């Protein structure tokens, strides 16, 4: 299974009578295909990936923004270019996720100097080689833009394919690479990769070779965990930074997601018995008002998450009264600082007030009061009341699902502590059949008329494309899915990321070994089993 076979499988039919041209005023090409004048993004992508033809006036950098929430578009991108996208990125040393590279992409729409005046030097062998390298580099950058779109639109088939190609391992590897130069590193790039991990975590439930508990244990005991708490978190108390604050907030959301989704019932109990202080002492160190109210809200949510999980795993009683008293003391000191700020706020003039800061300060003080009430109930043995208070400030209570009210509800679902910028993205299944425009809203079935609710299903062989009916599945199979189904079920080696062995043996974050195949689990009939 090689590049040529994959390319033939994905390549749409072309005319057999195309006349070769050396160059064209409207395109930069390394091959002899005639450029097609079309404004359709999919056609432009086919020209770039299959014909190596580049149109300089096309807005590549704005593609994700323009096509955001266009789920049919991203379904087509997944099916036609998915493996090519991950191959270009996973087998490249180009770091595309940082802000500098994205700015460079935007500049390429107006400036083609870096691609070397192909028309002037078309007959020069050196210039042709340079153009080949340049277009390969450009494909990598466009691939990154498309990968960002696949992640942000969160179509289950897209994320499933990325995981099968070892995408989770790739984003872990990028975090390790970026933070090896700590304390100097690209904060926005690390945030991008952490958010990618958080998006992909649910799909780790599907491969048969994944040991989820091992993923959680390695994360909690990694150098990355220690650096984020002891260097980034503690450092924010001494030197506030907006960028580092965003980094630490993204880390806390990732940590909650990993712990909720991958731990085994015995993991926390084992850690509490062997290294309780090393796990909780860094949390005590950052539970302070000096962190800033918005970031303190995130810390309080993570604390509530850990206590909720301890209750669920029957190890909350391993946190004795001395531990709970220490946690309560940290919360009391933070609350006292918060209330002093609120009293000073009333004396400030309108010009001196920071309404943004004040908004989160009010939320943080209320969350601190809720945590203190929960801890008091826990120390008195009122576990059920403790859990109710913890739920309100945990990720389970503060997450925002974009859902209409249920039938019979008096109003919209109320979220007590509304501080998070992150909204849980509504999951949407588009029909991958190109002749069908239907989409199914997994989290909002109320949008569908009862008599017209589509019976969505995945391809039983690969589990990547979704369909609204058996008829659409059959139509898409005959239209071309049969040519690529086996590639999507078991991606070829060249489309998978293989983590290199580090020279120094210093790895900040790696929860998987290269031996993990990410192969999908199948039933007795050979059909792929999907969770989402």
UniProtKB/TrEMBL annotation:
Q: Which residues form the signal peptide?
A: none
The molecular function GO annotations come to:
zinc ion binding
In what residue span(s) does the MYND-type domain sit? 431-485
Write the record's keywords in alphabetical order, separated by commas. Answer: Metal-binding, Zinc, Zinc-finger
PROSITE patterns, per the entry: ZF_MYND_2
The answer to whether the entry has keyword Metal-binding is yes
What's the short name of a Pfam family annotated to this entry? Answer: zf-MYND
User: InterPro entries recorded for this chain?
Assistant: Znf_MYND
SUPFAM superfamilies from the entry? HIT/MYND zinc finger-like (SSF144232)
Give the protein's recorded name: MYND Zn finger containing protein, putative
């Amino acid at each position: 299974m090689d590049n040529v076979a994959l390319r033939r499988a994905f390549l749409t039919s072309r005319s057999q009578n195309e006349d070769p041209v050396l160059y064209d005023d409207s395109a930069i090409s390394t091959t002899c295909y005639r450029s097609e004048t079309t404004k359709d993004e999919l056609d432009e992508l086919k020209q770039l990936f299959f014909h190596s033809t580049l149109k300089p006036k096309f807005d590549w950098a704005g593609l994700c923004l323009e096509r955001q929430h266009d789920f049919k578009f991203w379904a087509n991108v997944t099916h036609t270019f998915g493996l090519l996208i991950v191959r270009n990125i996973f087998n490249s040393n180009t770091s595309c996720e940082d802000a500098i590279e994205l700015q460079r992409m935007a500049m390429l729409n107006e400036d083609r100097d870096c691609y070397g005046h192909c028309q002037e030097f078309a007959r020069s062998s050196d210039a042709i080689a340079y153009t080949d390298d340049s277009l390969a580099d450009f494909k990598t950058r466009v691939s990154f833009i498309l990968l960002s779109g696949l992640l942000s639109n969160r179509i289950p088939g897209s994320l499933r394919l990325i995981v099968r190609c070892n995408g989770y391992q790739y984003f872990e590897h990028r975090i390790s690479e970026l933070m090896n130069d700590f304390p100097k590193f690209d904060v926005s790039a690390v945030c991008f990769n952490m958010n990618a991990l958080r998006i992909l975590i649910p799909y780790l439930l599907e491969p048969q070779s994944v040991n989820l508990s091992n993923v959680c244990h390695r994360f909690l005991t990694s150098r990355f965990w220690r650096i984020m708490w002891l260097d980034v978190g503690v450092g924010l108390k001494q030197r506030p930074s907006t960028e580092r604050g965003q980094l630490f907030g993204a880390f806390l959301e990732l940590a909650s997601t990993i712990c909720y989704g991958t731990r085994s019932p015995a993991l926390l109990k084992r850690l509490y018995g062997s290294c309780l202080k090393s796990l909780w002492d860094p949390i005590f160190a950052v539970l302070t008002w000096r962190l800033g109210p918005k970031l303190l809200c995130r810390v309080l949510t993570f604390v509530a998450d850990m206590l909720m999980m301890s209750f669920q795993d029957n190890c909350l009683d391993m946190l004795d009264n001395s531990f709970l008293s220490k946690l309560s003391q940290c919360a009391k000191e933070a609350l006292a600082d918060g209330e002093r700020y609120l009293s000073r706020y009333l004396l400030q003039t309108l010009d001196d007030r920071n309404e943004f800061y004040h908004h989160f300060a009010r939320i943080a003080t209320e969350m601190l009061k809720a945590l203190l009430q929960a801890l008091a109930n826990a120390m008195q043995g009122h576990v059920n009341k403790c859990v109710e208070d913890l739920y309100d400030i945990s990720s389970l209570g503060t997450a925002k699902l974009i859902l209409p009210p249920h039938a019979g509800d008096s109003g919209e679902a109320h979220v007590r502590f509304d501080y998070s910028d992150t909204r849980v993205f509504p999951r949407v299944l588009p029909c991958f059949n190109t002749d069908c425009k239907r989409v199914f809203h997994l989290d909002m079935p109320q949008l569908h008329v009862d008599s017209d609710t589509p019976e969505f299903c995945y391809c039983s062989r690969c589990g990547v494309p979704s369909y609204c009916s058996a008829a659409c599945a059959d139509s898409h199979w005959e239209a071309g899915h049969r040519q690529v189904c086996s590639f999507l079920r078991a991606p070829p080696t060249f489309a998978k990321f293989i983590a290199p062995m580090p020279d120094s043996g210093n790895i900040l974050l790696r929860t998987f070994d290269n031996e993990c195949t990410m192969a999908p689990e199948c039933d007795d009939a050979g059909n792929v089993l999907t969770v989402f």
